[in-house]
Design goal:
With about 260 residues, the protein is α/β, with parallel strands linked by helices. The protein is about 40% helix and about 25% strand.
Amino acid sequence: MTKAIGIYREFKLAGEPGKDQKILDLTAQELRKKGFEVLLKEPKDFSEQESPDLVFTMARGKEINGVLIEKQRQGVFVINSPEAIRFSFNRKLTYQKMIEAGVNLPRTKAIKVENINFSDLEGKSILKPSDRHEFWFIVDNEDAFEKAIQGYKNQNIEEIIVQKFIKGRHIKYYVIGGEVILPKNTEREIPSEVIQKIKKQALLAGQVTGLKIFGGDFIVEGEFPFCVDVNDWPSMASIEGFDQEEAAFKTANLIEREYVHRKF
């Protein structure tokens, strides 16, 4: 029997801790139905002595992903790969590579917190840490800017991403392998050409990061979609018409398929 270990996301790095835990639990249930022997662990409880055949992980911490990189070298199959998770955390490099690959992003730049001034913003903007997925702000006045910057200083965040705010239709997306999942009414409300652009760019984002299970957000301005975020393995609980049970079923199928066809 194939031994699998699932690793939960660290509470402090989870956008929605309860929902993040649930999607991993549900995925484990689906893998058990397929005949996998599955254990679930917190990152702190996963030791270097573990010897599973595969690991499916939502963990984001530097230490646990270092351990998982070593496990890969020992022949353990890991999804999402720890290298891809680490890469996606480097927003500065991720956005740069996405632009090079042809993904449409709003005007974006990285600035050191100690050097940034309100005048550096070109109108309403979104501020994000350059090395974390959470803790972002929409800023359209100097008071909001000062509060955001003080918050970053309190969190010892040294560099942030400044992204132009795009006013338009917000569309959340998930990707599981090569399948892009959008809200159920999207195809009735958005032109098919725009939907195809969104799906193409979402898959490009996966190619750039190396993530197999991920999600994020698009803003559609007119008929032009902008990708504004890419996050490793989200909770899969925020898209209308697509619940966590269906997400877990599809994710377990992907994990099984990727494991069977893994490269040695």
